[in-house]
Amino acid sequence: MSAGREAFARKLYHAGVEPILSIRNLSKTYAGGFEALRDVSLDIRRGEIFALLGPNGAGKTTLISIVCGLVNPSAGSATVDGFDIQRQYRESRYRVGLVPQELPVESFETTWKTLEFSRGLFGRPPNPEYLEKVLRSLSLWDKKDEKIIALSGGMKRRVLIAKALAHEPSLLFLDEPTAGVDVELRKDMWKVVDSLREEGCTVILTTHYIEEAEQLADRVGVINHGELILVEEKDKLMREMGRKELTLHLNETLGAIPESLANYRLDLADDGHELVYTYDTHSERTGITALLSDLNRAGIHFNDLQTSQSSLEDIFVNLVRKPASP
């Protein structure tokens, strides 16, 4: 998101403008007794990209399916653009676009006919100018008369997005949009997602590629065992929960950390060839200068050093390791 658009979205949110999606105490228990969602509440700001992360079976698909009207909740409520997903189904549903992980498109239909059909399903009047704009924004205009079966995997993904946008939704769900595509196509898709947000579309992204969320998202939500365990600004999350490590490559193998260094957060690695110091970059003092002095006094010398910052993936893994609530 550009700095200006992000600031505008936050201004609207904090000024009390209604979120594009508002979920309150949503729960889902299936007939067999499996509790897929437990008391989930969440507001999605207009114009943001929100990454919903969680392991398989965490509840991501159930949450999306409820908002899209494909599954009925057991308890709770949700509104899209102010319209209740159950009491005002028609009004809420056509405001939502869904790009599923699979590729459910008619293989022998053309790109253009696929979009026209999808738009008609939602009762929207013909608008060739809008459909042309969608196809051009996704670099599909020159493929408009080609049959889906003739397109590459990456192009088929783009057609799915175009199909989901055909009825002019204000909220778009992307469920694993780059699953099964190569790295180059994945980066192309990142550009597409970012351009959608620049066009004013709010995007909720589910992904197993943590770097995708790190690259695209404004905020991150983590769901596990049907519970939403965290929602935070991505940058703030990485500042507050991320760690920075200083790795010292030692001249001589160290068998144990000396007692004189016990006050530092030190770990031995690589069979005693490395000493790793974990610290907080946002504290008033990192302690690195004092550590280096104390290492010298202890007779521990090194020939190289490097620093590394924990990624969103590290944070995610630590969060989902926590046990479910009783």
Give a summary of the structure in a few sentences.
This protein has 326 residues and is an alpha/beta fold. The chain contains 11 helices and 14 strands.
User: What is the C-alpha radius of gyration, as a whole number of Å?
Assistant: 24 Å
Give the strand order of the largest sheet, numbering strands 1, 2, ... along the chain: 6-7-8-3-9-10
Runs with pLDDT <50, length 5+?
1-6, 11-16
Terminal-residue CA separation: 38 Å
Sequence of secondary-structure elements: HEEEHEEHEHHHEHEHEEHEEEHEH
Q: Structural class, from secondary structure content?
A: alpha/beta
The main pleated sheet reads as: 6 strands, mixed
Average predicted local confidence, pLDDT: 84
What can you see in these coordinates?
By secondary structure, this protein is of the alpha/beta class. It has 11 helices and 14 strands. The protein has a 6-stranded mixed β-sheet with strand order 6-7-8-3-9-10, sandwiched between helices. A hairpin with a 5-residue loop joins strand 1 (21-29) and strand 2. Helix 4 (111-121) packs parallel to helix 6 (153-165). The protein is elongated, with a radius of gyration of 24 Å. The two termini are 38 Å apart.
Throw out a few tags for this protein.
single chain; 326 residues; alpha/beta; 6-stranded mixed beta sheet; 4-stranded antiparallel beta sheet; 11 helices; disordered N terminus
